[in-house]
Amino acid sequence: MLKAIYRWIDERIDITPIWRDVADHEVPEHVNPAHHFSAFVYCFGGLTFFITVIQILSGMFLTMYYVPDIINAHASVGYLQHKVAFGKIVRGMHHWGASLVIVMMFLHTLRVFFTGSYKHPREMNWLIGVSIFAVMLGLGFTGYLLPWDNKAYFATKVGIQIAANVPFIGEYIKVFLQGGDVVGAQTIARFFALHVFFLPAALLGLLAAHFFLIRKQGISGPL
Amino acid sequence: MSEQGREHQPSDEQHPGRREMSRRQFLSYTLGGTGAFMLSMPILWNLRFAVDPLLQPKAETEWVKVIPESEVTETPVSVKFQKHVVDGWYEHDPEVEAWIARDENGVIFALSPTCKHLGCRVEWNGSRQYPDQYFCPCHGAHYTKKGEALAIAPAPLDQYQVDVRDGWVYLGQLTPNQLVK
User: Fold this and answer.
1) How many CA atoms lie within 13 A of A206 on its CB side?
2) What is the residue-averaged pLDDT of chain A?
3) Rounded to 5 degrees, what are φ and ψ at A136?
4) Above 0.95 for ipTM, yes or no?
5) Which of A1, A8, B153, B175 has the fewest CB within 10 Å, making it most exposed?
6) Which of A76, A85, A86 is closest, CB to CB, to B89?
7) Helix%, strand%, coil% for chain B, nearest 5
8) Between A and B, how many CB-CB pairs are < 8 A?
9) What does DSSP assign to residue B130?
10) Is A86 left (phi over 0), alpha (psi -120 to 50) or beta?
11) CA distance B168 to A143
């Protein structure tokens, strides 16, 4: 059945070469944990991506209940967590995944650093990776405010004060992030927009570039 | 792959003719199964989370005390009352209206003022053209005292469940009209 559907599509638009380009490629021995167990360090990039997919999925579903508004945000989070079936799990995935994605990304960065994989000719991909790191931190920072509890509020207040200390443009950054004179209604609205539209869009673009380059240049050689 | 050559050989001598599963098949089944299981868990939780409103039990409407029994006459009167609504994380008490009257046997009944055509508000004696009828100003739908639709509207006015206790009229669930056929 599945094979028939695949053949039907393939006959018309010839997807086998595309599929081969994307998925069918050798895994070199020095990055295959089946050959050298220590090669598991090469999994961290893929694990980061896997958790990112979980974050996108659980985040999409959370917005079915969540309201980015100072009066309703905390109540809607409480409702989805305590009243909706599997709310604890879905919010839990997003909550713990948010920390885990940073951990995995950091381990991936360490692996790239200590294997020297960032060197010529892969400098561009290192820079893209650093940008992904920054976007991820931005996602973490903006997402932290959304439950609108005390922790969220004060963490954002402190974070914005830190950003305000940037020389010369600090004050502008602060007003841009806050959207007003205080951390409040306007802040949560724009943090939500950044968290679900702008930063994920930037992230997906950067990830596409990251993956394109790794396929183009191949995995760096053994130590 | 060297395993492929052995794929279809009945290698177990005690069961000649029995086809052994190849290593490749076994690995793709176990790895595929584990992978599918791991992927389906978060997806299933998310889906159950999303369809939760479909599976919630219908909220029961509480009885609301609206007017003393003695004030209800044969002529419908408009009564406004507060109804407690639990809307997810938002609870509020919107004002709703009912037209309350007695029928020819003195039995109290209450109708919803929402027109069954397109949902405007109907009014008793709302038009001089149709005396002693409910009239909707939007498209001229009109109804008898018991809510029977005489023009435009496809159905009679909805009816509240009525209960009379200790000299007071209580209104409950809104139901389709049972007074007229």
Assistant:
1) 21
2) 94
3) -60, -45
4) no
5) A1
6) A76
7) 20, 30, 50
8) 44
9) S
10) left
11) 53
